[in-house]
Amino acid sequence: MGLSPSSLLDEHGSNYIRGCAEAELKEFGPHYRTQYSVVFFSQVQDELQQPKEKIKQLLKQRGPPEAGEVLYEEQVLHFEATRWEERYVVVRGNYCLECHSSFETFVKGVPPRHKLLPTGGTVLTTEEKYMAMVDKCFPVSETNNVNEKFAPPIIGMPGQFPVYLRLPYRRDYYFCFRQDARQAEFLSILSDCIRHQNQDFLKKKTVEVQAFLKAVHLYRQEKGSYDSWKMLIGSDVRVLANLVMEELLPSLEKDMLPHLKARKTERKRVWFATVEAAYILVQECLFEGMSALKEECRKAAHQQEVLIRSDMDQILNSRTYLEGKLRASVLEPAEKFCSEGVQPYLASVLEELMGPISSGFQEARLLSDSQMDQLCQDFQEGGVTNELKQALAKLSRPNLLSCYQRINSLHDQLHDLQERFGFSNISSLVHSTQIDLQQLVENAAYTFHLLLYKDIEDNPGNACSAMEKSRHKVLKQYDYDSSTARKRIFHAALVGITLPHIKKTLAPTYKTALQGLKQLIYADYSNFVHVHNIYEGILLQSLDKEVIKVVEEAARLKKHNLFTDTRDFLSQSSSSSLLSTPFIPSNPARMLGFPGQLQTQPETPTFIQIHPETQPEAELQPPSLLSQRGPPGWGAR
């Protein structure tokens, strides 16, 4: 008989793992408490400041779909235990994948057999590539011959089109299809699930999430890690669990691998099952501890709110004074390093970003145009019918897989960034950009929907003309919003790629000096003014000036159909070129991006934190012309 995970994860092993999780949370806690107070103060400050005038959107915003809304449902072959089973797979608006026994049990409301959150997942469609990835994840030891072959534990595959889902620290999932088209549809929705499960939670603007993000950055920097971390994905508990597992795996390898004396394939299966058991145990411990920590911080913030509101001016003065001291010593060296070590490379990095991203956005435009044109041809007569409603619903969720693949070519374009800036987390860039593209396409479909209904209502006797009119409006608005979104993406990507490099380079010079500046903060206000936040804000401002110049220069040269401002857009659209001749990128294989907020105590820009509403003041963009359709709710965690 083979070994089992429980035989390796005995009481001693379980207690050791719990101890590691508790120690990590104890070490992380002070960073989170500090950032919670800082972010909460900023939230109250925003509330008390004169509200900025909001520019109205052309169309009203439609609320996000319900978390339970069904986005995909299909009969799918799924490998369970030792055999293939027909399962009814459902994906809801929270991007959680459910496996039901059958369509009948789903309709009756029977709970699913499995719920899968594919956070961090990698999708493969060939056994060769899947086995190669598994081999990379299995540690080399004296008991392991790296040339041993390992096959997935599946037999008698009933179809020609498999899907292998590889998950970090968890068991893998296997699906199979008999038709290529059904496999492609499943790949599209599964990729959506991975992107959104990776990033939706961390994109939230709540105090808890923003404090957590900043705390993770500073916590890792304290340990000497300044890079954009690949495992910053999923919920707060999952992110902390990933931190624990990074430190835990070496000890598991040392203690457990020598005892894995089973057959070669069994050895790998037992190892991966043991890692999963450890991962689940870590998350259980952290969930309880993180919940208590957040509740503690909420209560503390409630008590601090009276002081914040009464002493807001004094706190801001204290922060301004500290910022002045920091600027005097930091600004000149930071600007010098930016101009010599970063600025010369920004334009070339931007070129590598623009191609794949613009190519993906352009292909999505062509796809939307084609679908709207087909709809216009199919419904040339009559008013709003059930068939038209169904066609519009289909238009709202097109298969963007080919568009995503163009953006995915960033992996090939940006491989040199590791050597130059120490940046390797290209997947996060890709996923965030793909989410932005998905949002833009959904906005276009929703806007077309609203315009079409209104035009048909105003001119019921000429539905064909109404559809063409709506289509042309949407295409013009798509071009404008595409330019706005991509400029924001490029700006944030350049910051996210280069800022960690700047911080790492300057850290040895200023790390000790920053500690000494804490004494300049009035004790009563030390919860709301943090030296490292202000320091990183100064670095960001130095870099931001250079990034803005490069992005605006690309827009001035109208590279990849970028617009400099509203007047530029109106000038081009009035020539009708946007309607008659679709723009084709000069290099249809490069692109990416996101924005960051320029403020005294900023959130460190990452490729999951960039939003249209948080652009640097020096690069304020005109309002979106497309209705903003909120993203579906994030899944359970």
Automatic annotation (TrEMBL):
Region (Disordered): 614-637
Protein name: Protein Niban 1
CDD domains to which the protein is assigned, alphabetical: Niban-like
Niban 1/2/3 domain mapped to chain residues: 336-500
Organism listed in the record: Salvelinus namaycush
Family: Belongs to the Niban family.
Domain of life: Eukaryota
